[in-house]
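Hey,
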Amino acid sequence: MEINPKYSIIIPFFNKWDLTHVRLHELYKYAPKECEVILINDASTELDCEGGISWWQEDVVTSFKIRYKKNKENLGFGGSMNLGARYAKGNILIFLSNDVKVSGDFISQIGILLDKNPKSLVGGEVISFPGGWNEFDIDGKHITIPYANGWLLACTQECWKDLGGFDLRYGKFDYEDVDLSTNAILRGYDIIPLGSQYVKHEHQGTTISDLNIDRLSQTKRNRGVYIEKWQSKLSKIADLGE
């Protein structure tokens, strides 16, 4: 009888198979046995992605199961993460960008935090200071909204279902992590930084395909989407932090 893993690590990618390959090597070295890795191929066009997946699934004996899904069309960051979460069997979901270098067992560290406080959203880092993205002028006040940065997020299955996952109104990228954090705070969850020395974001993001989307325009658009959605409640979040 197959026993469900404790952790489901969800990694989406678009092309640049070398990054995902390196991440799997690192997880091979450091991931505890009670894990599964779910790879979401976000409609990659480079053929080495399929060959790389086959090698890991058929020729390498790992302590964790590697599961694989290829999107028919590019869904972007939020859509691919949501899909991975639907396949996950673990009680703890870990959303990991493939440009995050792993040098030790950060997974057990996440487990300790969530076992202690299951009603929380864990981020590789939490931006609680004014960072531009999270600054807003609301009701005559300049406020800062804390958020867990999307390159590494973790929560329980129960939390994920309660939050409803990433909001797809943000399209392929930008502000979905701010939105998720805002939703979590308003529902009474703690936003906790992992602060692990075993993970480092290398800023080589590859979950976005080259679809002629202008990054600055997308960011401005999604900032507007976020404000429209949350404007009436942002002051409440600011008051909670005082």
